[in-house]
Amino acid sequence: SLYPENLLDDLHDETTDRCWVVFWTKARQEKALARRLLSRMIPFYLPLISQDRLISGRRMRSRLPLFAGYVFAFSSEQEGLAAAKTNHVARTLLVEDYEQLVVELRQIKRLIDLDAPLTIERRLQPGQRVCVKSGPMTDFQGTVTRRQGKSRLIISVDFLQQGVSVEIDDVRLEPI
User: Fold this and answer.
1) Is the dihedral of CA 12, 15, 90, 143 positive or negative?
2) Which of 106, 84, 109 has its CA nearest to residue 24?
3) N or C: which end of the chain has fewer CB within 10 A?
4) Do residues 158 and 147 make contact, with C-beta atoms less than 8 angstroms apart?
5) Tens of pLDDT along 14-40?
6) Predicted local distance difference test score (pLDDT) of residue 159
7) CA distance 8 to 31
């Protein structure tokens, strides 16, 4: 999940031709991209957390990306282009304030290393358009609203100016 092991230990000097980028991957392609980056020796960080699942009556432990769809890389322009040309990357996001990013990633890594129970938090605002990314309502699109402190997904028929809402976990939603 981290190559090289000391990537987040110290801030990198300005003389290098590398910069921090965030690869926004296609669905469930984070680990495949990380393997590709590792094979090309491109520094990256993919925060992974352990999660227990019950599959066919057996308890299985999986290592899942903490931030679904994102891999952080410290690459040159040429390395970034090579990674973007793989079939794993949907978009490349440039990082303006790399020092802040490294500080934040360092904190995330420390929490993971402490095996702290983590919950993914999203800042979905009421009125924001979202898509459901997991569960029985996968690929439903709607608008987020809050009622009694809980998130709800509104599915509407705009022509009629009416709709329905259902309570849903923020972790199942991603902004459109």
Assistant:
1) positive
2) 84
3) C
4) no
5) 667 899 999 999 989 999 999 999 999
6) 45
7) 19
Question: Helices 77-84 and 30-39 meet at what angle, rounded to 10?
Answer: 140
**Nearest in space to 167 (alpha carbons), one of 157, 149, 156, 153:** 153
Looking at residue 58, its amino acid is R
Beta strands 129-132; 58-65: pairing state: unpaired
Which tokens hold the place of 37?
Answer: 């980056």
Q: How confident is the model at residue 67 (pLDDT cuts 50, 70, 90)?
A: confident
Q: Pull the structure tokens for residue 3.
A: 């190559």
Strand, helix or coil for residue 168: coil
pLDDT digits (tens, 9 = 90+) for 118-171: 766 566 777 888 888 877 888 888 888 877 777 777 776 554 556 677 888 777
